[in-house]
Design goal:
It contains eleven helices and eleven strands. The protein is an alpha/beta fold. It folds into two domains: 182 residues, Rossmann fold (3-Layer(aba) Sandwich); 118 residues, Rossmann fold. Strands 3-2-1-4-5-10-11 form a seven-stranded mixed β-sheet, sandwiched between helices. It has a four-stranded parallel β-sheet with strand order 7-8-6-9, sandwiched between helices. Helix 3 packs across helix 4, helix 5 packs across helix 6 and helix 7 packs across helix 8.
Length: 326
Amino acid sequence: MKVRRIAILTSGGDAPGMNAAIRAAVRVAIAEGFEVFGVLRGYRGLIEGTWRKLELRDVSGVIERGGTMLMTAREPRFRDPDWRKVAYDKLTQGGIDGLIVIGGNGSFKGAYDFFTDFQFPVVCIPATIDNDISGTDYAIGFDTAVNNAISAIDKIRDTASAFERVFVVEVMGRRSGFIALHVGIATGAEVVLIPEIDYPIEKVANDVIEAKRKGKRHVLIIVAEGVASGSSVGDILLKRLEPHGYTDIRVTVLGYIQRGGNPTAFDRLMASRMGAQAVHALARGEAGVMAAFVGQEVVTRKLETAVSGTKKIEPALYELARKLAM
């Protein structure tokens, strides 16, 4: 059956660039002759049937905005096949025959289950600041989050250098160290702690001592939240370093500032390309796939690729961070 009426939703954590992806999908879909509907609050909106038709002007002035114009929500009910059936019935009763899901790993799992249950035409767009979706080199929002963190840490470094202090900066990444690693390299951090690689606190303490011996005026430690809280790292580290004359370690948690603000040019471009690819995939009759950035091309890959594994950190990139911190 040919898809003619598409619903679009954003689910899970918001990511800068989601609005740009919505805009691209809506405008390309209308240009291709589709009707488009925006689902409010993610999978909750599917279950409750809350969506509205979107026209060209509805997505004007959103490309530069963070967050998501369609809003988002965590919806545990969607894990239950019975509730997915409710959502399926609502879509079919509304005459909607295609679905674009913009989100991260949890959103992809929900979309994959929905596709598996009903063979409903679903295409996903990767959008998560963690950049941890398998099968794609890039997820929308990552570049903005990294740049937001870098901007904040550059300011922290000024104070760290002035007072010759050790600073621990906690960044987002519960199961993924992509933000911490990229931020660590880009800010010249002495230590980067990520969930994927075990790095004992004793080695961190030794790195701080060695940095001082080399004449460094400050030490910057980037820790992904999935390793430990920044405050706990700071407390444990201070106990190890007190015998060596350290009396003060400062901790900063960047938190949600990483997810907010205007998306970078790169995120706007990637979101636009992926939004267009998602529509074209549905037009070609593809289903159960995602838009993926591979090499320098935006292609489609099966959703199974995304939900069957976790994207890995490049060991060589982590080793580069270690060498650059010398």
